[in-house]
């Protein structure tokens, strides 16, 4: 059982720092029957990019979002807009060959350029800042890896150099520097894209969770209150909620802790930073309505397979206080994305013969701002019959390492409800029933089924975000069982105690 005192000790608001400054426009939810050429499920960076490309080409588009525009994985990311993805090009050249590495660089550079172009073309105010990206090490023995990566990056046409140290307030043993990268507020950007989609005739619906995708005249997509028929369906739900080629075993969900601290003076942080040593850290400046922030990210862990997420926040805060000039904790949250065995996302039409017009995108390895924009362009291009040079790279049906995905088991099993203290959660197994229960501050117990509605794995309690996280494919449910993140499409079932 996790240390129950830790949750109470965590400071700051439990939410992403980006929402505070983003002026959301509320869209209505889908009702009745509608028709469009393309229905896109999910208004994160992938769905919005695809939608805007298609609307710019004059196509009729309906965009269905389960919650709010841009507020899920995109709106909880560190939102670095960069072709520097840790150390990747040297690996890609060795594992997949120079052509694949070139494709990856080209796609991501096109993704970065598209974001910069749209912020100007659609006048999107999203705190966009041009900054250098640094991947740093504190271990002198790893400098060679930085040099190899700089050489590989230059081989695929990217501007890269190794510098003696990263401009950070603690000692580093070298850093890989990519000039002229960027960072922004991802929710403001998403809101801007949605407005542009709407201005070009696209129809956007929020609070419209898709519960089924069936074959109709072509594709029929249903929410609880509405139906859309379309020639093409784009499943841009971060993890696919349905796919003709299953994605669950080709990916591994990974989560991170994120803390945004108050910062007196952001000017010394001339760049954004990623540590390549274990435990990895990511650092960037940000701002909310009260002023500058320093956003710090902790190392990844498998979603639902960590018994004490709050403990990870405590460690991250201690590290930040020891190494960075941070003030109070303003915001803190978890975010997840999906890894792939070869570090390249899956995007496109998985089975064009049997399921023509069914498109997916997933597995961004936590680099989906640039990759997600690139694959939005790719999918839109496929629908518009404009072939894209990166289709082979992102092929969602390519062979994969079958040992990569590892299911977990619940890390929150307790013998009885009595073991669950105020603010905590646990899973009680009683005969065939598995009950996920949490106790509120007044001591009242709330219970739902612990059986994930995706494929039946048992959920774990996230004692920091107070969510039920599935240890198999990363579905996340609120404490009351309502669905936050798929692949599940339904909430946890209610249980009477
Ligand atoms: C901690 C962390 C930091 C990151 N930082 C960076 C970074 O600095 N730079 C970078 O390039 N990448 C970063 N990433 C990765 C990047 O944020 C993601 O890969 C990218 O945002 C994914 O976009 P998406 O559109 O697939 O997902 P989302 O933004 O989650 O969009 C999917 C949308 O689909 C909706 N949805 C889900 N199910 C349904 C349904 N059934 N019906 C209707 N709608 C549905 C969701 O509500 C959601 O809004 C980071 C990831 C993590 C975890
Ligand atoms: S997410 Fe697949 S079983 Fe829970």
TrEMBL record:
<dbReference type="InterPro" id="IPR036188">
    <property type="entry name" value="FAD/NAD-bd_sf"/>
</dbReference>
<keyword id="KW-1015">Disulfide bond</keyword>
<dbReference type="Pfam" id="PF01266">
    <property type="entry name" value="DAO"/>
</dbReference>
<dbReference type="GO" id="GO:0051537">
    <property type="term" value="F:2 iron, 2 sulfur cluster binding"/>
</dbReference>
<dbReference type="InterPro" id="IPR005805">
    <property type="entry name" value="Rieske_Fe-S_prot_C"/>
</dbReference>
<dbReference type="InterPro" id="IPR036922">
    <property type="entry name" value="Rieske_2Fe-2S_sf"/>
</dbReference>
<dbReference type="GO" id="GO:0016020">
    <property type="term" value="C:membrane"/>
</dbReference>
<keyword id="KW-0001">2Fe-2S</keyword>
<dbReference type="GO" id="GO:0005737">
    <property type="term" value="C:cytoplasm"/>
</dbReference>
<keyword id="KW-0479">Metal-binding</keyword>
<dbReference type="GO" id="GO:0016491">
    <property type="term" value="F:oxidoreductase activity"/>
</dbReference>
<dbReference type="InterPro" id="IPR006076">
    <property type="entry name" value="FAD-dep_OxRdtase"/>
</dbReference>
<protein>
    <submittedName>
        <fullName>Oxidoreductase</fullName>
    </submittedName>
</protein>
<dbReference type="Pfam" id="PF00355">
    <property type="entry name" value="Rieske"/>
</dbReference>
<keyword id="KW-0411">Iron-sulfur</keyword>
<dbReference type="GO" id="GO:0046872">
    <property type="term" value="F:metal ion binding"/>
</dbReference>
<dbReference type="InterPro" id="IPR017941">
    <property type="entry name" value="Rieske_2Fe-2S"/>
</dbReference>
<keyword id="KW-0408">Iron</keyword>
<dbReference type="InterPro" id="IPR038010">
    <property type="entry name" value="YhfW_C"/>
</dbReference>
<keyword id="KW-0560">Oxidoreductase</keyword>
<feature type="domain" description="Rieske">
    <location>
        <begin position="412"/>
        <end position="497"/>
    </location>
</feature>
């Amino acid at each position: 059982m996790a240390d129950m005192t830790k949750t109470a000790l965590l400071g700051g608001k439990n939410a992403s720092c980006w929402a505070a400054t983003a002026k959301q426009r509320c869209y209505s939810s889908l009702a009745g029957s509608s028709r469009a050429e393309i229905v896109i499920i999910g208004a994160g960076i992938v769905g919005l990019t695809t939608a805007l490309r298609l609307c710019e080409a004059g196509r009729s588009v309906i965009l269905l979002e389960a919650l709010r525009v841009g507020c899920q994985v995109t709106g909880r990311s560190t939102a670095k807009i960069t072709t520097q993805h840790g150390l990747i090009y040297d690996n890609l050249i060795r594992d997949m060959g120079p052509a694949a590495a070139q494709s990856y660089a080209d796609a991501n550079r096109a993704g970065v350029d598209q974001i910069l172009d749209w912020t100007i073309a659609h006048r999107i105010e999203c705190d966009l800042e041009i900054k250098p990206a640094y991947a740093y090490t504190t271990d002198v023995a790893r400098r060679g890896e930085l040099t190899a990566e700089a050489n590989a990056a230059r081989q695929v046409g990217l501007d890269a150099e190794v510098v003696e140290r990263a401009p950070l307030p603690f000692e580093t043993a070298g850093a890989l520097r990519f000039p002229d990268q960027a960072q922004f507020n991802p929710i403001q950007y998403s809101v801007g894209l949605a407005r542009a989609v709407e201005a070009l005739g696209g129809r956007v619906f929020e609070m419209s969770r898709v519960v089924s995708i069936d074959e109709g005249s072509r594709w029929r997509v249903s929410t609880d209150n509405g139906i859309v028929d379309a020639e093409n369906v784009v499943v841009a739900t971060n993890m696919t909620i349905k796919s003709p080629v299953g994605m669950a075993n080709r990916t591994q969900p990974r989560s991170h802790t994120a803390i945004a601290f108050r910062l007196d003076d952001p000017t010394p942080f001339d760049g954004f930073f990623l540590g390549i040593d274990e435990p990895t850290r990511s650092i960037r400046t940000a701002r909310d309505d009260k002023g500058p922030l320093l956003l710090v990210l902790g190392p990844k862990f498998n979603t639902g397979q960590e018994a004490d997420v709050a403990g990870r926040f405590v460690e991250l805060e201690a590290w930040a206080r020891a190494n960075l000039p941070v003030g109070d904790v303003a915001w803190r949250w978890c975010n997840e994305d999906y890894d792939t065995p070869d570090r390249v996302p899956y995007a496109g039409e998985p089975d064009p013969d049997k399921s023509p017009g069914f498109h997916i995108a997933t597995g961004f390895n936590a680099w989906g701002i640039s990759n997600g924009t690139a694959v939005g362009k790719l999918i839109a291009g496929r629908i518009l019959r404009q072939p894209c040079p990166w289709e082979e790279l992102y092929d969602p049906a390519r062979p994969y390492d079958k040992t990569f995905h590892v299911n977990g088991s619940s890390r929150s099993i307790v013998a009885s409800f009595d073991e669950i203290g105020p603010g905590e959660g646990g899973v009680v197994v009683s005969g065939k029933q598995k009950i996920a229960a949490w106790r509120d501050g007044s001591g009242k117990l709330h219970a739902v089924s612990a059986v994930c509605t995706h494929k039946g794995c048992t959920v774990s309690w996230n004692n920091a975000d107070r969510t039920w996280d599935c240890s198999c494919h990363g579905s996340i449910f609120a404490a009351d069982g309502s669905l936050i993140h798929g692949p599940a499409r339904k909430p946890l079932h209610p249980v009477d105690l």
